[in-house]
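Researcher: Going back to the complex we discussed earlier. I've cleaned up the inputs and rechecked each line, so this should be the final set. Can you rerun the prediction on the complete assembly and write out the structure?
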Amino acid sequence: MFISNKLEKLIESLSRFPGIGKRTAQRMAWYLLSQDQNFALELAETIKTTVQAFKPCSKCLMLSESDPCPICSSLMRDTDSLCIVESSADIQVIENMNEYKGLYFVLGHLLSPIDGYGPDQINAAALSQRVAQLMPKELILALKPSAEGEATIHYIWEIFKDKDVCITRLSTGLPFGGDLEYSSSNTLKSAWERRYGV
Amino acid sequence: MFISNKLEKLIESLSRFPGIGKRTAQRMAWYLLSQDQNFALELAETIKTTVQAFKPCSKCLMLSESDPCPICSSLMRDTDSLCIVESSADIQVIENMNEYKGLYFVLGHLLSPIDGYGPDQINAAALSQRVAQLMPKELILALKPSAEGEATIHYIWEIFKDKDVCITRLSTGLPFGGDLEYSSSNTLKSAWERRYGV
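Model: Rerun complete. Updated structure for the full complex:
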């Protein structure tokens, strides 16, 4: 094959991103090669300086350039609610919604013992500590509805169920704009069971 | 917003890739931040060394680490056919098919006067020169079926129509595995007009 090792390696690295298949990685690699070289060199530099600048916030564990992160250090946030998410990326999605003004805590992983993610990997001790310190009125479990998400929700609920805090989780059901026809049976079942009066 | 300039810039750069939307770029950026830093640093280095190593081949204009490229310098290729493609990435797709053993020529762009891509931008002079030098029996126009592709096919046909060379283009029709229901009317029309006996 005429593909060089360098190019193979670039394609392989790009295809390690979630949601990027081999074909997309190939297109990305060739795009990098075919553009003005400055685009690729600047991208390489941006990747380097960005990852070197970001560290977990010591309060919420979100990856941030400053410690505490801008959210934890803001005086405008409502300290009565703590939203628990899997990753820093989830915080960006929730912030984009422009609805929630409370604080966050990043687990880093969902509970999945067979993959080696136990209580230590989901930062359970740091979470307990943060909750004891903040004493929020509500813990919002914004975790994905999956086997791992459910296990994590149950695990966190066990920790805090006897504490004086309201524990909520996001609603499950049909995604907005989603066709019934393309819904998984789990999604449909959940929407069915949780149907409400109009 | 809590998103830093560095991260914004990384997301913006990643979303410049074809087929990568804002959301995918966000996920990629956060993935870079959340992985072991070595992954990101190695990726940055691979991007840099790869784009610096690749230059257009002086014969076919494919981006390659060597000049002439491995295909032009191979003694195993059939010099009787020259396949004309838009980009180096297209060559990889055709090579993966493992069917064609001839040579290539990369236009770099399709003809699109309103976007500023005229005969000079599609390397028409270099193509004429390459054809005069090689004297292939067949020119295979492997260009995409679109307004720009059709214009380019017509333009190249005009250049070589009186020369002693057979000019072919790829068949148009339904993609393999494609549902009629999801085909565009242009695709269906072309499949209909070019229907053949079973």
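Model: Worth noting: The CA atoms of residues 67 and 73 of chain B lie 8 Å apart.
Researcher: Good, that matches what I expected from the previous run.
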